[in-house]
Design brief:
The protein is of the alpha/beta class and about 325 residues long. The chain has seven helices and 20 strands. It is globular.
């Protein structure tokens, strides 16, 4: 499995990889460390979206695994985190990008050590930093998604992602497997054949017509109903988040015979429960994306810090039967 995963990571079309977790304590840091070891001796760039790598969990007050990096790794992090580094480092440059931990600086480790990551909070800034890694000879960039910050997995930001799930998400084995598969399905929704000139406005596509709607937010779903046409397919593009409450207002119109589909920018904008998604698609609705995320693998952590857990082999095998990407336990 390690060789298969390494081959996926070394794909020439994959420069930046995000590591995104289902939630707190699902094993994201352990997975990040595993990927770092797999890519050795390649020079890596490492950053995060938000802060991660703290020694004590802020919610459970239990010890957390440290992020361990190799000598020569280039790190982009808020300058106040540098005091937590256990290794010496060389400051390469300031980026002019700031977060609550100060200016994000590019540093190169001069020896192996543990770090605290405090990367950019905005995806636009993250894209700039990923590009900056190239001039320092980084062969790959790993982005720690930090506390369910799925925005890092956007195909507009990183080239691929490793998704991580774990027992901490649920004590119920069946629910854990089902929710994990659902989250992956939402991140990998099919890509539409429609191209849009603008991606920042709510639009209704009916046949050859593309109309910008005078509605600022999908939260105002009730105002959309009057624009749907009953004699043709209605494709609604939403630039923001797609939620259960929005779909629940659309489903009754589909049941009346309206053909309604929804397009979102990418799967990181989709926040749907399995129930809401099922009701919408079972009624005849469809959801597509402008650009699909690219999952490379699924990491699992069968143990919870609360003391319960599942059999690793059973969890890996159950998920592997349901997803088309490699499933692995980084500690096996």
């Amino acid at each position: 499995m390690s060789q298969i995963l390494k081959e996926k990571l070394m794909d020439q079309d994959i420069y930046s990889v995000s590591i995104v977790g289902m939630g707190k304590n699902t094993g994201k840091t352990v997975t990040l460390n595993y990927l770092i070891s797999l890519l050795d001796p390649l020079t890596l760039g490492v950053t995060s979206i938000g802060i991660d790598g703290e020694k004590i969990d802020n919610l459970t007050f239990t010890p957390k695994p440290s992020i361990s990096l190799k000598k020569g790794t280039v790190v982009a992090t808020g300058e106040k985190t540098l005091k937590e580094f256990t290794s010496s480092y060389e400051i390469l440059e300031g980026t002019g990008i700031f977060n609550p931990l100060g200016e994000i600086v590019m540093v190169r480790l001069q020896e192996d050590g543990e770090v605290l990551l405090g990367g950019p909070e905005r995806t636009t800034d993250l894209k700039k930093i990923i590009s900056t890694f190239k001039k320092y000879g980084c062969g790959k960039v790993l982005v720690d998604g930090a506390i369910d910050r799925r925005a890092a997995a956007s195909p507009y930001v990183t080239d691929g992602m490793v998704f991580v799930t774990g027992a901490a998400f649920s004590r119920d084995f069946t629910r854990l497997v089902g929710e994990t598969v659902h989250r992956l399905n939402m991140l990998t929704l099919p890509q539409t054949s429609i191209s849009l000139e603008r991606e920042d406005k709510i639009q209704l596509i009916s046949g050859e017509e593309i109309n910008f709607l005078p509605i600022k937010s999908a939260l105002l779903a009730d105002q959309l109903i009057g624009y749907f046409k009953g004699d043709r397919e209605n494709l609604l593009y939403i630039p923001g988040a797609l939620t259960d409450s929005f779909l629940q207002k659309i489903v009754p119109w589909i049941k009346k015979g309206y053909k309604i589909g929804i397009i979102v920018k990418d799967g990181t904008k989709v926040f749907l429960s399995p129930k809401a998604y099922g009701q919408f698609t079972d009624s005849g609705g469809k959801i597509e994306v402008l650009k699909s995320c690219k999952p490379l693998a699924l990491g699992v952590n069968p143990l919870s810090e609360e003391g319960y857990g599942f059999d690793s082999t059973a969890l890996v095998n159950s998920l592997q039967q349901l997803v088309p990407i490699p499933v692995f336990d980084p500690l096996k």
